[in-house]
Design brief:
Blueprint (H helix, E strand, L loop, with lengths): L2 H21 L4 H33 L1
Helix pairs in contact: 1-2
Length: 61
């Protein structure tokens, strides 16, 4: 693919969702915010579990 077409396609894929989030088109903004909040909680839980398992592994060794 042409590099300018790739840049244009990438900008479109980046700008359109951000615009839909800001304008709250069809509730996209609230759905994206809820998804981000839920994802953030799961990320913190998984990082905590990872550190817990690493700590237990260090105690055994």
């Amino acid at each position: 693919m042409n590099k300018f077409a790739e840049i244009l396609f990438g900008l479109i894929l980046l700008v359109v969702p951000i615009y839909a989030w800001i304008v709250d088109f069809w509730g996209v903004g609230s759905a994206a915010t809820a998804f981000f909040k839920g994802g953030l909680v799961w990320l913190l839980i998984l990082i905590g579990a990872l550190f817990l398992l690493l700590g237990i592994s260090d105690l055994k060794g």
